[in-house]
Amino acid sequence: MKKLITLTLLVLFTFTSNVSANEWDKIRIGVEGAYPPFSSIEKDGTLKGFDIDIARALCEEIGAECVLVPQDWDGIIPALLARKYDAIIASMSITEERKKKVAFSEKYYNTPAKFARKKGSGIIISKAGMKGKTVGVQRATIHDNFITAEFGDSVNIKRYGTQDEAYLDAIAGRIDLLLADSIAMDEGFLKTDKGKGWEFVGPGYSDPKYFGVGAGIAVRKNERELAKLFSLAIKVIRANGVYHRINGKYFAFDVY
Fold it and tell me: Could you read off the pLDDT of 11-55 as tens digits, one per residue?
């Protein structure tokens, strides 16, 4: 059955592309490794998470060897453009600003952003309610762009290289609010022992102006055919149950 699915993908690609999927016998994929439950690095150096499993499943569907390359978020697009790897699978939202630099596949998941506050703080999500408060956010992300544009004149913004660093400062009492992907923050912090003193507050945010249209796979602009191949592979794993199996490993609902 697996061979039949892969053959179907190759046939589809042949009819929609000038390039054969067989040209990609190895795909190097940039991953962050610091964004649980989407990606993290175990003590033994093993990569795990939803993004990691999706990357491997898509490579398998394409028939390519999957080489995962950990990369700090700040440099993840520059490293792609410098040809350190061929694609990025790191919960990267498809935004108009990023599309100026890279090409994207179709989305492989889409979840809203939310704020979290310390329990008992009583902070309200409004310019008045947040005035003078310190908000922790991962640097150079859609969440950074949103908080800067919408609340930058009311709050103090503290930016971090990784989401885990923001969580550590939250635990230490150095920030009043967190802003991040709701699922990443719920699974990676609020549901853990370290985050038990924190809670969600306010609505979810998904305005495409800031948050794009979901997380996609980024490639160099001159390799749009690879993005198209990933899009087809996403459709196949959504149809054959592989996506559902991976999704169920990490989440109680469909993040697509």
Answer: 555 444 443 456 799 999 999 999 999 999 999 999 999 999 999
* pLDDT attached to residue 235: 96
| pTM for the whole structure | 0.88
**Distance separating alpha carbons of residues 234 and 240, to the nearest angstrom:** 10
Same domain, 44 and 103: yes
Which pLDDT score is estimated for 169? 98
Residue 70's domain comprises 2-110+213-250
Q: 229 and 218 share a domain?
A: yes
With contact defined as beta carbons under 8 Å apart, do 86 and 224 qualify? no
Largest Cα span, the chain: 59
List, as own/partner pairs, every contact residues 75-80 make where C-beta atoms lie below 8 angstroms and the sequence separation is at least 24, other chains included. 76/30, 76/32, 77/101, 77/102, 77/218, 79/30, 80/30, 80/218, 80/219, 80/220
Please compute, for residue 7, the number of CA atoms within 13 A of its CA located in the half-sphere on the CB side.
4
Q: Does residue 201 fall inside a structural domain? A: yes
